Amino acid sequence: MLFNSFVFVGFLAIVLPVYYSLSHRWQNRFLVVASYVFYGYWDWRFLGLLVLSTCIDYFVALGLDASHDQRRRKSLLLVSICANLGILGFFKYFDFFVKSASTLLTSAGLNVNAPLLEIILPVGISFYTFQTLAYTIDVYRGEQKATRDLWAFALYVSYFPQLVAGPIERASRLLPQIQAPRFVTQDQLASGAQLILWGYVKKVVIADGLAPYVDTCFADHRNLSSGALVLGVYAFAFQIYGDFSGYTDIARGVSRLLGIELMENFRQPYWSRNITEFWRRWHISLSTWLRDYLYIPLGGNRLGARRQYLNLFITMLLGGLWHGAAWTFVIWGGLHGLFLAVHKAITRGRKITAEGPPSGLRDWAVFLVKAVGTFHLVCLTWIFFRSDTGEQAQDFLFTMSSVLFTGDFSMTESLRGLPQTLLALGGIAALLDYLCWFRVREAPFDRSTPAWVRTCGYAVALLLIAYMREPSGETFIYFQF
Length: 481
Prior knowledge:
Elements: H1 6-21, H2 24-43, H3 47-66, H4 70-107, H5 125-141, H6 150-158, H7 171-179, H8 186-219, H9 226-257, H10 275-281, H11 284-295, H12 305-323, H13 327-346, H14 361-386, H15 390-401, H16 403-406, H17 418-439, H18 451-468
Helix pairs in contact: 1-2, 2-6, 3-4, 3-5, 3-6, 4-5, 6-7, 8-9, 8-17, 8-18, 9-14, 9-15, 9-17, 11-12, 12-13, 13-14
């Protein structure tokens, strides 16, 4: 069920009034049922995986809490890790590894005809797998008490606002909210509605408005000018940000209407001064998950500089693979790991500049140079993220790089409106983020904003959504992960 579909609007129109009329105990049970309906609308057959993950980690956590035998506790944790990663690996990576092994053996002179299962990837499996896995690891570490309330835990795993594309919530943050009585305030309703509105602007207006141009650039890259491909990369940078950040805003807004706060997953990442700051602001729930459950267990920065750089590289390499079963995602993650390691080496022993807005004219000039440089590094990696194959990414980069010598920005008929659309929609994205970043707030407007400005802003946003929305609703990019 897509957030930007009339089906979801109808679903929410039924869920909210029923939810508000119930006691806390029945609210949780009702939300579990609603979440299963939400997920099953896409394909009811995969509800079994959701139930299986829930049951395994619920009982493993209870066993971890009840046992003081370290060997038994390690065995129980291993059950959770193997079960969760085994399910994820089978559905997401089986064909990828079979194809890769087959290609490697063929290049070595062995003719292998390996069978492929061509399995459908369950929506959101990467997200809820990491969420349930974090729960059992935290219980094992003694950082989280296992809950005996199966309904509460089932809701923690399946909570529909963040089920299919995050944010990846920790049990220590979400479970207490589920287990405690909830009272939705007027402020929550107002701020939740505002988050939903701006989320739809990011998704429907910015991301979906740029999507046709991005698709054309990457599908027909061999027949386009170098300048058109450069603009296509910029367009994808704003498309994926608007798409994923928009989803998160809608998820947080809908959840706030239910009286539950979800963590911030994006904090104006394209205003970052360096690649390290970028990963503190982009997909925050994943970057902190990778830090706490992969980077730190690998040794973090405790084993010297060289080991830290290696740990960063390995972490981002696996983070890339988490995004998708393709070598292009691995390269994307590897590049980010390399950039992070280089940045750590350059700044080693130095005090890192604060992430807030600069104060003076000189600071602004330095900031803009750093922010523009970081943005272009990120755009370089987006080419691999968006490309279907390494060969496509290589061709794209080769053609695009020639713009430095040719200055060719000619547009085909299908891309005639790309420069103007990118300028307009990219400008809207930058303005919305600037208002949040400069004022340090989650939405462009707050109570300090004059009422007439808010009214005009909301009216323009609603008109843009109504004008640009596709009848069926465009799917979200991160649903494929």
